[in-house]
TrEMBL record:
It comes from Cupriavidus alkaliphilus. This is LemA protein. It is a single-pass membrane protein. It comes from the Bacteria. One of its GO terms (cellular component) is membrane. Keywords: Membrane, Transmembrane, Transmembrane helix. Pfam families: LemA (PF04011).
């Protein structure tokens, strides 16, 4: 006669050690504190600033790409305007020689050099376009008119991109300077970001004139 097997006992549920529970509590509290102190907001606004900055760079690069053809076209009709043409070429070379990246946003001096170079290029372009008004044959040239149209569109996009960048930086900097989120900025190294100067902001509404 077989001996009846004893009923199996249920497996006890694993118990968490007090240390494990404490660890989870600490993580939960830290997540809550980070959220309350604006850490997630900093990440979102920092990415928004970088995206806006990237668009500014793209539009300035597009303008720089148009300039060689513009200079060559003008030179074909106004070769004796040598000083004006050289000024544009030199200003373009200076502007494109400045290496820019997202890290430029954390370096006010590098940002200042960049905007100064772009401002000088804008001024040189304005003078070149003003000179072109004196040459009816140049103004009638189909290639020149096409380049003018492309330049006008690019200048408008630069204006919009700069405005969006200024707005994004303003929102970010308010967060970086306000209490208690300024403590989060200090701990996690979210410095105040540079924006275009007052003089530069005025120039936004007055890009180089492109006349037809």
């Amino acid at each position: 006669m077989r001996a009846s097997s004893s009923p199996s006992l249920p497996t006890p549920l694993p118990t968490r050690s007090p240390l494990s529970v404490l660890r989870w509590l600490v993580l939960a509290v830290m997540a809550s504190l980070l959220s309350a102190c604006g850490y997630n907001d900093f990440q979102a606004k920092d990415e928004a600033v970088k995206a806006a900055w990237g668009e500014v760079i793209n539009q300035y690069q597009r303008r720089a790409d148009l300039i060689p053809n513009l200079v060559n076209t003008v030179k074909g009709y106004a070769s004796h305007e040598r000083e004006t043409l050289e000024a544009v070429t030199k200003a373009r070379a200076a502007a494109t020689s400045i290496q820019v990246s997202p890290e430029t946003l954390n370096d006010p001096e590098a940002f200042k050099r960049f905007q100064q170079a772009q401002g000088e290029l804008s001024g040189a372009l304005s003078r070149l376009l003003a000179v072109s008004e004196n040459y009816p044959q140049l103004k009638a040239d189909a290639s020149f008119r096409d380049l003018q149209s492309q330049l006008e569109g690019t200048e408008n996009r630069i204006t919009v991109a700069r405005q969006r960048y200024i707005a994004a930086v303003q929102q970010y900097n308010v967060l970086a300077r306000s209490f208690p989120t300024n403590l989060t900025a200090m701990i996690f190294k979210y410095p105040v970001k540079p924006s275009f100067t007052v003089e530069n902001e005025k120039a936004i509404s007055t890009p180089p004139a492109v006349k037809f």
